[in-house]
Amino acid sequence: MKRNRFFRRGVLLLLCVGVLICPPAWAGNPLKLLFRGAAKETFTRQIPVAKLERILSARVRVTSQQIPPLLRWQKRYVDDTDLPVKKVLKAQTLYSRKSPYAELPFWDQLSHEAKENYFLAANNRASRQVIQQRLQSAKTVQQNQESLWRTQKGFAPAPLENILLEEIPSQAQYILLGEEHDQAVILDFVSRFLTSYQRKYPTRKICLLTEFLPVGQPSKYTLDSMREESPAYAKVFTRAQKSGITVYGLEPQVVFSSRDVVLLDEKYNPGKKKWELWVMPESMRARNRFWMQQIKAMRAQYPDAVFVIYAGADHVAYNASFSLAKEFPSEQTFIAHLFAEDSQNDVYNDWLDVIGGDEYPFRKQKVLSWKSPFLRRVAGFDIRFLISKKDLAPQ
Q1: Which of 22, 88, 122, 147 is least surrounded by Cβ atoms within 10 Å, i.e. has the fewest?
Q2: How far from each other are the two terminal CA atoms of the chain, in whole angstroms?
Q3: 3-class secondary-structure state, position 183
């Protein structure tokens, strides 16, 4: 990231703030880049809140200017949720004492406007990183699409869960299932895979760690409540629990129940689109960081267990900006992407589909994988399935 040239006075103020900022472990350090490249001096006096609020306001402007407008061809590879946020429209979680940033020593003293600016500046930096990563990933796929198409692995007809089972190395301790959300066929597939994995390795301890539950082991009350809004997900977790699998939620409670909303910057998206706050780039970074803390704690408790981490594909892909996959030993990690097959329409699920188009129709391949670890990382996964009802014959 290019460094900005601040006046000497501004640099001194920023350094003073740096001494005071000790962000919560799950939030990371969203202001860290403020101080990169500045002289290493120590200031002990406390910055008045009014000055801190002005600094945060300035950081929103500065970080916004660091994101260049997207060219027309670039927009093809960037999602709406990657774009900078102009305003937080609804932020009960962000402003509350349960906010992910509530442990900051100055948080309670800030106005709502300053708290919003804190998030907006952090999100601008995360947005820039995500956009750069998207464009680089698209370029890398484009450079390797002929090899990706030509060297695909072939698979004999078999139940898809069996194919996945055979592809996962026996030494894998982190099996990451990245899904397309709210697809009944995918949820059925996940349950079937867990059953098959247990049968193959009956003596192994299995932990199912998931985005779709609030942090901790779910109580009967939690699963009963989930059955009202998300019965298909509740079924997966209830069935796993009954079979002896340890189920553990990864999502912070405040995020799990949040309804916070943001408005995207019209400079990048004139449609004035609104999105949930906790799917924005900074939110994804912070959530994944919190998840990793939970995963590490679980690993200390179950050092020999196999962790099946079940979340959205953007949380686990090799080529995602804040991917969980980057945190695990490569030889112990396996990623499967799960999408619903739509036989009626041409669906573009990831970079392979978007870039391959009709010349390299990856979108029509029911199972995708390669022997080459390099190509797997280019694609973002070790194996990908397009799942339909006909693939889920009675077990």
Answers
A1: 22
A2: 52
A3: coil
Q: Cα–Cα distances in Å, from 130 out to 32, 218, 233, 356? A: 17, 32, 29, 22
Residues in the chain: 395
Q: Structure tokens of 136? A: 């680089």
Task: Please report, as a single letter, which amino acid is at residue 24.
Answer: P
Nearest to 155 by CA among 165, 163, 143, 146: 163
β-bridge partners, 85? 264
DSSP string over 249-274: EEE-HHHHT---EEEE-TTT-TT--E
Assess contact for 102 and 27: CB atoms under 8 A. no
* Residue 116, strand partner residues: none
**What residue type is assigned to position 329 of the chain?**
P
Coil vs helix vs strand at 248: strand
Contacts of 322 (CB under 8 A, 6+ apart): 126, 284, 285, 288, 289, 315
One digit per residue, the tens of pLDDT, for the chain of length 395 reads 333 433 333 433 333 333 333 343 334 443 333 333 333 333 334 778 888 889 999 999 999 888 888 888 888 888 888 989 999 988 778 887 778 788 788 888 888 899 999 999 999 999 999 999 999 999 999 999 999 999 999 999 999 999 999 999 999 999 999 999 989 999 999 999 999 999 999 999 999 999 999 999 998 888 888 888 889 999 999 999 999 999 999 998 888 888 889 998 888 877 778 999 999 999 999 999 999 999 999 999 999 999 999 999 999 999 999 999 999 999 999 999 999 988 666 677 888 998 988 899 999 999 999 999 999 999 999 999 999 988 886 65
How is residue 162 written in tokens? 């069996």
